[in-house]
Amino acid sequence: MSPLSLISGRSLRKGGMQWLYFAGTSYLGIPYDETFQKLLKEGMGLFGSHYGGSRHSNITLNVYEQAEAFLAEWSGMPAAILTSSGTLSGQLVARHLQQETLCLYAPNTHTAMQTAQVKMMQKWPEELFSTIRNHPGKVVCILCNALDPLHARLTNWDWVRDLPPGRKYILVVDDSHGFGITGDHGRGAIELLPAMPAGCELILVSSLAKAWGIPAGVVLGHQERIRRLYADPLFIGSSPPPPMYVYAMQNAAALYEARRQELLKRLNQFQRKCKHLREFRHIPGFPVYFTPKNGLFDALYQHQVLISSFPYPTVKSPPVTRVVINASHEPEDIDQLATLVDAYFQNE
Question: Domains in the chain, start-ordered, CATH in brackets?
């Protein structure tokens, strides 16, 4: 960490002191990687810091189409469309689909995909099945998260196999925290979902600000669906993400995989070293470790180690406490973390 840096991914400067940092969502540490920063500088030299214009303008930059083709090929999905954020991706899809079909929301679906008409289901999947059976229409859209990054829980997809027959389904999955991280090849929910029922259309929504390290979002789906989203007024009226980030992303495929392998090494190290791993809920290959023992935050704070702990979903809610490891952490950081965690739980 240079003397001028405020944050390096593994540490930050706070109150004139250096603190180890185990929070945030930059799981691969991409924003702090020197190779990625060089690609950003190349992109800035080519395109400047931002492109102020609609993707429907008579003057366009083909870097966006190139990046969309890259993401579609990498993910194995037919087509992709880039937006300026994961939230815009979610809103674009949700508002678009509500014009044509019944939209049903699984519990805890991210606010990025919620609109004013949302009714979140509580008894899942019983209420889902009941609503579908009583719905006269032929098309049903189901919106849900791929995982819960706060409490480190994967979505159970068993209900997909039991969807009532006689309908066409559109399944919209927000995989902002898993896309680029989870699964054997890092492709997230695409690798973990069961086979879709006949006639079921899959749409994937993701922020690219987590694993991918750029201020952008993406929607992946069938060619015709992406074509219709491209023509949506919300997309037409929105500025695209800065082209220098898009350029850097599409030229960093090897770097992303190398960083993911580094992350897996750090996760394996923590899980070997920490004798009290049972105190955490975690997902294989995902760098978030949730604990209900909120006192862990204060215990680590005394040793200049910062973890994530804040009230959720409202300011009056109890704190959600998590340890977040990323690929920027050094082996000695993980050793120190495991030692301090074990010391806390031994005395707790």
Answer: 11-34+254-347 (3.90.1150.10), 51-241 (3.40.640.10)
Residue 68 has pLDDT above 80, yes or no: yes
| pLDDT score recorded for residue 196 | 86
% residues pLDDT > 70 (the chain): 99
Q: Is the preceding peptide bond at 136 cis, omega within 30 degrees of 0?
A: no
The residue among 326 and 59 whose pLDDT is bigger is 326
Are β-strands 102-105 and 139-145 bridged in parallel, bridged antiparallel, or unpaired? parallel
For 127, counting Cβ atoms within 10 Å of its Cβ (0-12 exposed, 13-18 middle, 19+ buried), the class is middle
Is the pTM of the predicted complex or chain greater than 0.90?
yes
Mean pLDDT of the chain: 94
Structure-token pair, residue 55: 């993707």
